[in-house]
Design goal:
- By secondary structure, this protein is mostly beta strands.
- Helices cover 6% and strands 51% of the residues.
- 37% of the residues are buried.
Length: 205
Amino acid sequence: MKIQYTAIACIALLACAFVACDDDDSGESSGTNSYLPLKIGNYWEFVNIPEIGSNYTMRTEVTRVVSFNKNEYFELVNIQNSGAQTYRDTTYYRITQQGYVYTWRRGWTIEENPMRLYADDDDTWKYETNYDAEANITVNEIDDLELGDSKLDNCKSFSFDIEQWADEEHSIVLAPRIGFVQRLVGFGVSSRLVKASVNGKVYTF
């Protein structure tokens, strides 16, 4: 159960939840969406950390807007390749004007609130998961985040922990105007961004 939750939670938050932070702003990526610019056609491509000796890759793409439970969501599809295995996963995201990010998946009974885009350094909160457990979130602001040959400023790391579980701890790092840039996990595959197309602009690292 712990491993299953880790895989589902990490993928969901990536579909999420990965890029230069100081590039010019655009309409779709300003305001509440700056740290998570969601628009149909935007995508993020990742490789594992460390990169030596593995052929793990993942691509997350915003594919469409759908309506569920009287809310509109962006559909984010993840395709992971690890050796000969390919995995496909879908998570639905919506962002409120207050910058609260809610995620939902088919089969879930409640929305989860894993990210708050306006959160400050050391902010914390809790939310009920769909796995009969409460998740604790801690935010850390990061400057000089190394990504390939680039260094990114004003990034935010959202760290997740369920106190009564083991091996599910992980964090998702977002960069302004770009979105997902890094995923770090205590158990499993950590990954970093190598290419993204966000609101018509392509970034490579």
